[in-house]
Fold this protein.
Amino acid sequence: MAERDRQTKQDRLLGFARQMRKAPTSGERWLWSHLRDRRCCGVKFFRQRPVGPYVADFLSFEVMLVIELDGAGHERTVEYDRARKRFLEDQGFEVLRIGSEKTFTDGEDIYPFICELVRTKKAQPPPQGEK
């Protein structure tokens, strides 16, 4: 029974992620146009990717980075976002949160900042015990 419940939750999460990929916000469309196809330092990013019980807006396993675009309403989910960030960090990810309005007002600064962060993370040696 527990296995079936877990699978049902995972199926719902995958469906939710699919739905989110089909209806991106304008900020998500903008950022994806810059991250897709290894456009940022040759690093592969995924969009709306499930990680445990959460869905990350943008995720790279290569540099262990999650980028979250926070739209209107995130001020109502502070505790949820805090727990989510803690979970992702426990999985080894760095979490970068950006207000989605910043993609319009500061887009020329945001993308270079993300690329510099990715470049820095690529240059770091892997943690002890990993190759």
